[in-house]
Amino acid sequence: MEEELRLKESDCDKETFVTDDLKFIRDMLERTHREIDPEAFSMIIWGLVSMVIYFGAYFFVVYKIFNWIPYVLFPSLAVGGIVGGFSSYRVSKRQKARGMVSHIWKQLNWVWFILLPNAVIWSILGLFQDYFGGPGFLWAAVYAIALSMTGILYSREWLFGGISIFIAIIVAFFVRPYSYLILGAVMGLACIIPAIIAHRRYKRSEAEYAQG
Amino acid sequence: MPKADGPQFDDLILSRARLGIVSTLMAGDEAEFTFLRNALKLSDGNLSVQIRKLEKAGYIKVKKVFVERKPKTFCKITPKGRKAMFGLLKHLENLLRQPK
User: For A99, which of B4, B15, B72 is closest by C-beta distance?
Assistant: First the structure.
């Protein structure tokens, strides 16, 4: 048998086939990893939604028209929720059709699925009780955690996005009048830029796969 | 069964084709027959034989489902398969660390 022959070879050959095997395993893992759809469209929409909400909140607070906040907040969240849900459904169907269902993708969906309802609950509680920075900071922290998790599990661009939000939270806390502007800009860009990078890489690997 | 002096290998997944199948399934949760065939550049017959061997050993689970009205065969790694793969990786690393 092939493996028996390989095992009987000299030390030098043994080292070569062990290195080859490890390289082969790594290549297979990386190849499968590249097949994961980054769901860029949904992330870009969530980036834009957070920009709209935070920039809107800044102007409503500056001009003291607080009663306008729900008219921007709830439709934006609804758009994000509907687009995100639809995008996840579409990706799940496409994964089945392509023949590879990723557990990383499932785990990431769970991360967002668990964090977002928590953020909603804490935001509602925040309306009655003021805590560190208010709901705006809480949502930024939720985004930072979810993006960092995405970075750890999937690809590091997201991790940089998560870290930049953490930094923005600290900076925004000390420049309170502009905190919503800072958080909105950083959260939006932290979602949109990695989504574009990941999407381009995915498309490139798809093209390479189709060629090769 | 030990085959050589030094660390033991899991014979079943040491073969390139089966190692490829298990590695792919380690990264993805479920992979379809055609996906595996293209990724590993194996013939249909060869892949079927390797999948059957791994399924018989309890390393992978095979299920047939309809996707857009087309029958598809999906493979999924089992905890036993995952354990075997980690064992193999550990053995390979140990072999590399061994003084010559």
Answer: B72
Per the structure, the count of domains in chain A is: 1
Three-state SS at A105: helix
Task: Tell me the shortest Cα–Cα distance from A43 to chain B, in angstroms.
Answer: 22
The structure tokens listed for A99 are 């023949």
Query: A209: which chain B residues are within 8 Å (Cβ-Cβ)?
Result: 38
Rg (CA), chain A: 22
Q: Between A31 and A57, whose confidence is greater? A: A57
Average pLDDT of the residues in A45-74: 85
Q: Contacts of residue A206 in chain B, CB cutoff 8 Å?
A: none
Q: B36-64, pLDDT tens digit by residue?
A: 888 888 889 999 999 999 999 899 999 88
Q: Domain residues for A59?
A: 38-211
- Res. B3: pLDDT tops 50: no
Task: Kindly list the structural domains of chain B, giving each domain's residue range(s) and its CATH number in brackets, ordered by start.
Answer: 11-92 (1.10.10.10)
Q: What does the alpha-carbon distance between residue A58 and residue B21 come to, in Å, rounded to a whole number? A: 53
Q: Which chain A residue's Cα is nearest to B11?
A: A3
